[in-house]
Amino acid sequence: MPALGGRILVTGGAGFIGSALVWALNSRGIEDILVCDVLKSDEKWRNLVPLRYADYVEGPVLRSRIAERPGAFGAFSCVFHLGACSSTTERDASYLVDNNTAFTRELAAWSLAAGARFVYASSAATYGDGSQGMSDTDPGIERLRPLNMYGYSKHLFDLYARRQGWLDRIVGIKYFNVFGPNEEHKGDMRSVVSKAHQQIRESGTIGLFKSYDPRYRDGCQMRDFLYVKDAVEMTLHFAEKGSKATGLFNLGCGQASTWLSLASAIFAALGREPAIRFIDMPEGLRAKYQYYTQADISKLRQSGYAPPVTPLAEAVGDYVRNYLVPDKRLGD
Hints:
The protein is of the alpha/beta class. It has 2 domains: 203 residues, NAD(P)-binding Rossmann-like Domain (Rossmann fold); 122 residues, UDP-galactose 4-epimerase, domain 1 (Alpha-Beta Complex), CATH 3.90.25. It contains 11 helices and 13 strands. The strands form 4 sheets. A 7-stranded parallel sheet has the order 3-2-1-4-5-6-11, sandwiched between helices. Strands 7-10 form a two-stranded parallel sheet. Strands 8-13 form a two-stranded parallel ribbon. The chain starts with 7 loop residues before the first strand and ends in an 8-residue tail after the last helix.
């Protein structure tokens, strides 16, 4: 199978990473894409406006039609399954298991039966507080303890795929803290860069959570921040590699940065002096808060992905100056 040849399905294709993936495919001259999502009443449809694709289908329609007739939408060379409810505060466990776990099982089985490459979004949330490590090379994934139902719904499919022997044939990607254009529709779930830009515009300051762990000073909690343009290049790499790369992979920059570093980069992109205040963390979040995440991306590198990751300050500068300030989306 030629790399990225034939028709491509992208679920979650109107969402943040999904629409960025369609944009990256367009930049390669690829337009034979079926975009699947659930648009409802938010503004993510705007992400689709500048993009080029063959057709659009709502998620429940895709699910029911391929269950009734597997060839209903024709043949696909690759399926990127990025669609999911990604809210870490969603409490409806039955919905998450059906939408994030069962639907993924159905799509994976359908893709494998049709000979399509299947690349799906697992999540770094499966690692929980990180006490069991954040390695994508450790086969002992049953030891992981996600901190929220979203992470658990993703973990359930990882476990199922391993039991079925599918992880030798498919790719599961664990995105760390991705930020960048096309995330504005996510509301409270959008990145701190997006939220901070709005705060600075309205008040001139940024509010960061206080630390409730004596090992970390306020603002020195750390995250692995990954620019969405890098995230989609890493994702496409697994389709371009064909069947040579399989299993679970961490996708991050490989270097943790503090919230203070991120905030300073945002102010620098706007040409302002930093003005940061520390605010109380909600009680309900404190027991589930991750104080440190850093992706080990050595497995990604070993699979043949060579491009350097965009440095944090450069990525933030591009996002703020070229997308947030002029209110543009990828492809505009």
